[in-house]
Write a structure and sequence with these properties.
Blueprint lengths: L19 E3 L1 H30 L8 H26 E3 L16 E5 L5 E7 L10 E3 L3 H6 L7 E6 L2 E11 L3
Parallel strand pairs: 1-2, 4-5
Antiparallel strand pairs: 3-4, 3-7, 6-7
Helix pairs in contact: 1-2
């Protein structure tokens, strides 16, 4: 007796999950990384694994074991990038009409309670890189800055304690 194939349910989207915002540059970078993994990195590793497998005993073949591990890492990263790109909402900060307030994609210069002047750009989760001055729009600092105007003081709770940030400059890419 044959059973009918189970009906595939559409993937459920968590309504409580944050939106996956991304800038056009971040979207392009993720797409480029996915393309490189698919067309360059993965074929090279597959070829190396094939050569190593041809050498015989795979249980003690370091090249084969390492190659298979690297292949799993590449496949995992490709799946991650594919899912993130699938749900990404590309927001172009150049299209922002209200440039007097802080919104997604803004570059903000502020001074904190310790008189440190900091410049950050508010970007998507996947493109955040504090060493490059990019913070996620979901970070406490970005949330505190959102919708603020030039000269406003906002309070933010950080792991180091509460801090007051005074906005010195707001800019958007041209």
């Amino acid at each position: 007796m044959r059973r009918a194939a189970p009906k595939l349910q559409p993937e459920k989207v968590d309504p409580g999950a944050p939106r996956n915002l991304i800038t056009p540059a971040g979207n392009d970078a993720m797409r480029a990384e996915l393309k490189k993994l698919r067309t360059i990195d993965r074929p090279i590793v597959v070829e190396a694994v094939s050569r190593a497998a041809a050498n015989g005993d795979r249980s003690e073949n370091g090249d084969y074991i390492y190659g298979k591990k690297r292949l799993r890492e590449i496949d995992r990263r490709m799946r991650f990038l594919g899912k993130r790109l699938e749900t990404a909402e590309v927001i172009d900060p150049r299209q922002q009409t209200n440039r007097t307030r802080v919104f997604f994609g803004a570059t903000v210069t502020y001074v904190n309670d310790r008189d440190e002047e900091v410049t950050v750009t508010i970007v998507g989760q996947d493109e955040a890189n504090m060493t490059a001055g990019s913070i996620s729009w979901l970070s406490p600092v970005a949330k505190a800055l959102m919708r603020a105007s030039l000269g406003d003081e906002v309070r933010v709770r950080t792991p180091a304690g509460e801090d007051t940030l005074e906005i010195l400059a707001i800019s958007y890419p041209e």
